[in-house]
Amino acid sequence: MRESAAGPAWLVTGAGGILGRDVLAELAAAPGTEVTGRTRGELDITDPQAVRAAVAGHRVVVNCAAWTDVDGAEADEAAASAVNGTGVRHLARACAETGAVLLHVSTDYVLPGDAGRPYAEDAPTGPLNAYGRGKLLGERMVAELLPRTGYTVRTAWLYGAHGRNFVATMLELARRRATVEVVADQYGQPTWSAALARQVAALGRAALAGRAPAGVYHGTAAGRTTWYGLAREVYRLSGLDPGRLRPVGSAAFPRPAVRPAYGVLGHESWARAGLPCQPGWREQLAAALRTPRFAEPAAAARGAAPTLAGELPG
């Protein structure tokens, strides 16, 4: 187990993704923290030998590696589950062999999406699609192989500085189209990847110190909204006219994978660990929109805003 003058060594898998990059940056900026990042090209978590070699010498592993193509999982569930389920088993087994803590990132899609109030961390699971089934398999591997040092952090509706995400898409559509239709019958918690990265890092430190019990944690913003509600707030905070948005039902955008209608998560585990919950989704969004990743496309959208209905050139 590698310990250096810099402190315990962390490994971040999936370090090239939307969350992985933020977790890596969060840890690298912390004094006394040694961190290694491995992208998908550098570490295939479906290879048990490669996983064992990568985990060796680390005290904490943050697994951000995942098959994230929800609709693609319907066409190739075996491939998706190899990453989201079997790959997590390899990581959990390697951590069990070395005594490392594992923080595994999962999703609200492991839940049935039919609740009327926020799901508790111990609520019965029941995924509606292939992606959720694969992610649930990964959660079970963490619980089975690491009952004392395994942590599953479920998140949802993630957006951030890197990669494709809903907030960036809304700003791009605002530049190109006079009106935009947005789904208004799915409820969730828009979560800024930078806020989640801070929370994951805090959980890892608490786990190392023996202050956080193993198990499931819900890593989402406080509050709830719909995709339409999120889009309206993106427009409002960006100086765009929310009246250009049109609410529609999910049936207007048929997809191969069924999406849960209700993915709002409760946050009781953080209180039990003595750790703060994330800020509200509006507060997170306002902070995110001030960063260059979103401020620059918002300015471009304001400059291109149409006065008549129809699609803009662009």
Question: How would you characterize this protein structure?
Answer:
There is one protein chain. With 314 residues, the chain is an alpha/beta fold. It has a domain at 3-163 and 191-223 and 261-278: Rossmann fold, CATH 3.40.50. 41% of the residues lie in helices and 16% in strands. The protein is built from eleven helices and 13 strands. Strands 1, 2, 3, 4, 5, 6 and 11 form a seven-stranded mixed beta sheet that branches. α1 (18-28) links the parallel β2 and β3. α1 (18-28) packs across α7 (193-208) and α2 (48-55) runs parallel beside α4. The longest helix is centred in the N-terminal third of the chain and has 22 residues, at 77-98.
Helical stretch tally: 11
Query: Radius of gyration in whole Å, from Cα?
Result: 20 Å
Main CATH class of the domain at 3-163 and 191-223 and 261-278 = Alpha Beta
Largest sheet: 7 strands, mixed
What is the percentage of strand-forming residues?
15-25%
- H/E series: EEHEHEHHEHEEHEEEHEEHEHHH
CATH architecture of the domain at 3-163 and 191-223 and 261-278: 3-Layer(aba) Sandwich
* Model regions low in confidence, pLDDT < 50 over at least 5 residues: 1-6, 307-314
What's the CATH topology label of the domain at 3-163 and 191-223 and 261-278? Rossmann fold
